[in-house]
Amino acid sequence: MSFIDKANGFRKRRAPVQETIQERWLDIEGAIARGVPRAAIRRALAAEGYAVGKHQSSFNTAYRTVRAEKAAQSASEASPHFDNDLGDNRFKSDF
What we know:
Structural class: mainly alpha
Mean pLDDT: 82
Number of strands: 0
Number of domains: 1
Low-confidence stretches: none
Shape: flat
């Protein structure tokens, strides 16, 4: 097995926890906004049968990863795009 395959396998181990966080994102963010600790959120999700990782650090890492992905996604959606899909040729070069 190559190094890349091994590394990819480790990444996939956290995927169920990240999926849980993405699925319950609004609930998690709402709880955090009200001052609920992530440890309590993790225990509540575990009680409901969600994948939360073996340790709190796994949950925290997955949470930070999802939060960073969502921040990057919202930043890319907020930036102006200069798509030229209307057939406007003013910006095309004649070279």
